[in-house]
Amino acid sequence: ANKPEEWIKMQTKDISDTLDTSKPIQNFTVPTTDTISTQFLMKKFIGVNISPMLVGNAGCGKTQITKGLLNDMTQNGDDYLQQTINFNYYTDSTLLQSQLESLLEKKAGKTYAPLGKYKLLQFIDDLNMPQQDSYETQTAISLLRQHKDYEHWYERGTKWAIRDIKNTQYIASMNPTAGSFFVDPRLQRWFWIAAIPFPEQSSLNTIFAAFLNKHFSKFKGTIQELVPQVIKAALTLHSAIESNFRKTAANFHYEFNVRHLTNIFQGLLVARPEAIKEPDNLIKLWVHESERIYGDRLVNAEHLVQYRALAADIVKKQFGKFNLNKYFQQPTPEPLIFAYFVGGLDDKLYDQFAGVDALSGRLRDALREYNELNAAMDLVLFDDAMKHVCKISRIISCSSGHSLLVGVGGSGKQSLSRLASSICQFRTVGIMISSTYGLN
After folding, report:
1. β-pairing verdict for 168-174 and 51-55
2. Is residue 90 within 8 Å of 102, Cβ to Cβ?
3. Longest Cα–Cα distance in the chain
């Protein structure tokens, strides 16, 4: 292809056939102008044995671009193997070496290499995260530097014999605003560095349209027609949230990026024709998912009122023919609650509760079942408590869903978590934090 448009068309023509909307969005990489150009350059550098490093803020797609490239190179018969290693604060050289050696085998003498004639591509995510010791060094990074400098490291144990490591190559990514701001220049010199900006609106529209068009192709025509409007409204709301809720010292978690936007669309992809029967049901689902992603992270009532005003304005402009004002009216908007247990505790249909009374009856049944099998919890299921149970169950039902509950002691964090876990038919294990609690 001589033109970028032709290249993009070649890459995207079969994407709808490979997408499986029942799996997490993170499992797939939708080709856009940005991702294809970056992957093209990375592949060229890998071909001449130069390691690429992607640098960018959280949620800009560094990991997704690299995983898409690795999957393409390992699945198309290019004689490559892949390994992903996520660095964190406690990653040290001992742990890293055991991970790096897990896919290596001993060849002749002191030489170690991947299986057969394969070349191993090792993706180091969050390269700059390991803690610095008292000498301001990071042992994991020092091990990587030793390998890049001398193509060997030492066997750990009593002999400390040299191990020559062959047919391996690193790909790295890092967020310069987290962890240490810099990595050892003696390691960094071995990498080709590319700055990754946040995706443009056109790229985001391409990515999410691919998923939503595939998923809602089985729904009514009037619902399919709303998909472009929903995507536009979601992107507009995300931009408004980024502009109005800035990260501060007090609200350091006010950092909204593409991951949050992806979680909203992931919530839309659990919709089923049995629940979303009319166009306004899809709009309600989007409004609900947006408030769960954005609204639940806001720290006070004033910010939540401000968020609802932004959302109401966008809904009015994009979906004026649907009357949804009751879900935004102040000071007491009508509850809009979707959950997996609307039809029963054994039914996994994600649907809207008809009202607070229906939710109360369902949760009383769930609490009665929990008390029959466990130590009894004497809970008063007032409105906010019931909403919190729905929020927790929604999070833990999602793939890679992790919930951090913030509140004063005695506010019901543990009890509501246990009830939500029971509703999802999960086993709950508690970890007791004491003064002697530590890594060991």
Report:
1. parallel
2. no
3. 76
Cα distance between residue 411 and residue 168, in whole Å: 52
Beta-sheet pairing, 51-55 with 191-195: parallel
Continuous H helices in 327-412: 356-373, 383-397
Q: Contact at 8 Å (CB) between 85 and 44?
A: no
Token reading at 276: 């979303």
Helices 139-150, 93-100: crossing angle, 10 deg rounding = 50
HSE-up (13 A, CA, CB side) for residue 284: 25
Distance from C-alpha of 290 to C-alpha of 327, rounded to nearest angstrom? 13
H-run or E-run covering 119? strand 119-125
Tokens of 377: 């919890």
Helices vs. strands in the chain: H and E counts, helices first: 16, 11
Q: What is the pTM of this model?
A: 0.87
CB of 58 within 8 A of CB of 175? yes
Question: Which has the closest alpha carbon to 281: 387, 217, 354, 384?
Answer: 354
Q: How many Cβ atoms sit within 10 Å of the Cβ of residue 60?
A: 22
Q: Are 140 and 87 in contact (CB under 8 A)?
A: yes
**C-alpha distances in angstroms, 267 versus 81, 297, 303?**
33, 16, 23
User: What is the CA angle 124-125-128, rounded to 5?
Assistant: 95
Tokens of 364: 């009383």
Q: What's the rounded Cα separation, in Å, for the pair 360 and 13?
A: 48
DSSP label at 300?
A: S
pLDDT string in tens for the chain (440-residue length): 455 566 555 555 556 667 888 888 888 888 888 888 899 999 999 999 999 999 998 888 899 999 999 988 988 767 899 999 999 998 999 999 999 999 999 998 899 999 988 999 999 999 999 988 888 889 999 999 999 999 999 998 888 899 999 999 999 999 988 888 778 899 999 999 999 998 888 889 988 999 999 999 989 899 999 999 999 999 999 999 999 999 898 898 898 988 899 999 999 999 999 999 999 999 999 999 999 999 999 999 999 999 999 999 999 999 988 888 888 887 888 889 999 988 877 778 899 998 899 999 999 999 999 999 888 898 889 999 999 999 999 999 887 789 999 888 888 999 999 999 999 989 999 888 888 887 76
Residue 125, strand partner residues: 86
The H-or-E segment that residue 7 falls in is: helix 4-12
CA gap 374, 176 in Å, rounded? 47
For residue 242, the surrounding DSSP H or E stretch is: helix 227-244
